[in-house]
Specification:
Elements (H helix, E strand, L loop, with lengths): L2 H8 L1 E4 L7 E4 L7 H13 L7 E5 L3 H12 L3 E6 L7 E7 L4 E7 L8 E9 L3 H12 L3 E10 L5 H5 L6 E6 L1
Parallel strand pairs: 3-4, 3-7, 7-8, 8-9
Antiparallel strand pairs: 1-2, 4-6, 5-6
Helix pairs in contact: 2-3
The protein binds adenosine monophosphate.
C-alpha cells in the first residue's frame, strides 16, 4: 500500500468535533505505528528539494512530526504557540479566524535573518494558521522555503492562501 493510503487507514474521522459540522481528522492512531511514523518522516524528507535551515512547528499537533523531522534533518526546531504560552521575549502576529481573531507567537531570538525555513503542521484546512506563521517568519527577516502537512483538505483551498509565500506545499494524504 502507498504511504497515502496507510495514513488514511490510520486516521480516524470524528464527526461534529470540536463543534457541529466539523469532521475532525484524528491523527493520534498514527503514533501507535512506529513504521508508519518512520515512513511519514521519510515521505517528508524525500519531498524536499533543499534542506531547510530550520523547521517551524505550529501548536500543538505540528510539534509531533515537526520535532521528529527537525531531528532527522539535524536542524533547529522552532515552536509557534498561541499568545501567552511562551516564557521568553516574543514576537507576535494577529490574524482573522472565521469568527474573531487569534494571535500566535514565537520567541524573538528563534530565527536568524535570511534562514530558509520550512513550516510544518499536522493538517492544512483553510490555510489561515500556516499563512499567519509565514508572516511571523518574515517579520524575523527569514524566508519561507515551503510548507508540509501530514493531511491536506484540498476542498478548503488552503493552498491558495499559502502560494504567495511559497508554492512548495506538500500534503502526504489529501482529501
Ligand atoms: P486552518 O488555519 O484552517 O488551515 O486550520 C489548521 C489548523 O486547525 C491545524 O492546526 C489543524 O490541526 C486544525 N484543524 C482544522 N481543521 C481540522 C480538521 N478537520 N481535523 C483536524 N484538525 C483540524
Amino acid at each position: 500500500m502507498s504511504l497515502e493510503s496507510n495514513i488514511k487507514t490510520a486516521i480516524r474521522d470524528i464527526d461534529d468535533f470540536p463543534k457541529k459540522g466539523i469532521v475532525f481528522k484524528d491523527i493520534t492512531p498514527i503514533f501507535k505505528n512506529q513504521s508508519l511514523c518512520n515512513d511519514i518522516i521519510e515521505g517528508f524528507t524525500e519531498s524536499m528539494l533543499l534542506k531547510p535551515d530550520a523547521i517551524v512547528g505550529i501548536e500543538s499537533r505540528g510539534f509531533l512530526f515537526g520535532i521528529l523531522l527537525a531531528n532527522k534533518l539535524n536542524v533547529p526546531f522552532i515552536l509557534v504557540r498561541k499568545a501567552g504560552k511562551l516564557p521568553y521575549k516574543t514576537i507576535s502576529y494577529e490574524y482573522e479566524l472565521e469568527y474573531g481573531k487569534s494571535t500566535i507567537e514565537m520567541h524573538a531570538d528563534s530565527l536568524n535573518k535570511d534562514w530558509n525555513v520550512l513550516i510544518h503542521d499536522d493538517l492544512l484546512a483553510t490555510g489561515g494558521t500556516a499563512e499567519a506563521v509565514a508572516n511571523l517568519v518574515k517579520q524575523q527577516g527569514a524566508n519561507v522555503m515551503g510548507f508540509n502537512f501530514v493531511v491536506g483538505l484540498d476542498f478548503l483551498n488552503g493552498k491558495q492562501k499559502l502560494n504567495k509565500h511559497s508554492n512548495n506545499i506538500i500534503c502526504l494524504a489529501r482529501y
